Amino acid sequence: MKTRILKTTGDDRAGSIRTAVKLLAEGEVVAFPTETVYGLGADAFNRKAIRAIYKVKGRPSDNPLIVHIGSLSQVHPLAATIPIRFWVLAEAFMPGPLTVVLRRSPALPRYLNPGLPSVAVRFPRHPVARALINEAGFPLVAPSANLSGRPSPTRAVHVLEDLDGTIHAILDGGRCRVGLESTVIDLTGRRPTVLRPGVITVEQLEKVLRTKVGLARQTAKKPRSPGLKYRHYSPRAELILLEGKKPEIRKALKEMSGALKGKKKIGVLALAGYTRPSERLDFFSLGTTGVEGAARKLFEGLRELDRRKVDVILCPAFEEEKVGTAVMNRLRKAATRRIRV
Ligand code: AMP
Ligand code: MG
Known about the structure:
By secondary structure, this protein is of the alpha/beta class. The chain has helices at residues 12-25, 47-57, 84-93, 127-136, 156-163, 202-209, 246-260, 290-307, 323-334, and strands at residues 4-7, 30-32, 39-43, 66-68, 98-103, 118-122, 140-141, 169-172, 183-186, 193-196, 214-215, 238-243, 266-270, 282-285, 312-316, 337-340.
């Protein structure tokens, strides 16, 4: 199968979206841009299309899919009841990088997240995503358009890296503005709970909901040492997280590059302030705008350092507050080791 890249700028947009809608209507999967990361879209009400998503990604079958809608009215047939808190969140954050878990409608087909009493709903902001869903006329399930376990794609070429020859088309919408997957909040319990942190923070959610919001524990109970089972968002290189104060981390970067010299090719993924701790290190800058900018470039950096064929990626940890909570959530899952310096 030849994977086509469909342009979405200028005169090309309408035709590209028409091509993508035709494929989706035939039960095929199509990658498309959202403001968070690229999604692998399929008709949420087509059993064959859903099966194709799991196959193409190599995704574990118990990992549920988020249903993407093109307007708020599309939420009604998905959920059994829609709590007032959903509308409060919608007013503040939709369309945008927020996914809300609701009790699922009994009318939803069984093959969509079998066995789950809930449904996760997102209304993306990206104009190409919205045009695609609205022209299709049906909601799309859309996990990130990467091979399962790899860093999420934030550019069309990243999708091609993972899925070239296994999907028909990629709608190219340039770089994703947010760069991290959506915040997932669960409204099915007594207390709203964030299941996956994102750029919409717990603090922002609490302010809008005027109530305490929980944050589900993110770390696996078992140590991750035995193997790769719990790795996610992972580069091929070994990823080592360095935790500590900036001067100590700079010192550690120098020392480690000396110790590993000649044996391994070392990459560094860090804010621009760490630039050139040593000439020997292959540096990918996460920018000059703090953790928000780092969120945008994180997955791109992991992929780029893989492309440069480094053996080890050293990455200074971020403070776990606000957007730093989301960045560290991804980094912890991607990392092979953490070192306190
Ligand atoms: P992604 O692979 O980026 O599409 O992310 C999907 C994530 O959404 C999953 O890993 C879950 O954390 C979350 N999710 C999807 N559906 C549900 C659901 N019904 N209940 C709880 N979490 C969900
Ligand atoms: Mg994913």
